[in-house]
Amino acid sequence: MLLVLCGLALAAGLIASGTPGVAAAVLVGFVLLAGAHSTLIFPRSTDALEAQIRSALDGRPVVFWRPGCKYCIRLRIRLGRCAHQMHWVDIWRDPVGAATVRAANGGNETVPTVILAGQPHTNPDPAWLREYLSRSTRPGRSRG
User: Which of 9, 97, 113, 132 is the most exposed place for a label (fewest CB within 10 A)?
Assistant: First the structure.
């Protein structure tokens, strides 16, 4: 919300100075930036330890992400409603999550990193992950 309000204030100043086109572009940029950091796009994050416990109980994957990451946004958008079948951990808010990602990626904080059945998958193909999720939720099917 704060990003949108800042964008509105800046856009108002630009309109007053006679550059409405630039004002519109700035406002769109701030709205996109707000969306990239919003729980409207990403499911509410949990901490890494809680996500790992829940994943062990329900078998759902854990996704490690960070705000503003275009690959994380791509994954989230292409997963659609399937995204809510996973546990999401924001590595910028959770040092344990960041350490988990570094351990899985040779010391790099490469996101999205998805942990499926204990195995890390760095920047997985969204179609592959969506297919995995649809197979794992069908009645009579086992996970994996």
Answer: 9
* Alpha carbons 114 and 109: distance in angstroms, whole number: 12
Task: Say if pTM beats, i.e. exceeds, 0.85.
Answer: no
Mean pLDDT for the chain? Answer: 86
User: Could you give phi then psi for residue 52, rounded to 5 degrees?
Assistant: -65, -40
DSSP class per residue in the chain:
-HHHHHHHHHHHHHHHTT-HHHHHHHHHHHHHHHHHT-TTTSPPP--HHHHHHHHHHH---EEEE-TT-HHHHHHHHHHGGGGGGSEEEETTT-HHHHHHHHHHTTT---S-EEEETTEEEES--HHHHHHHHHHHTSTTPPP-
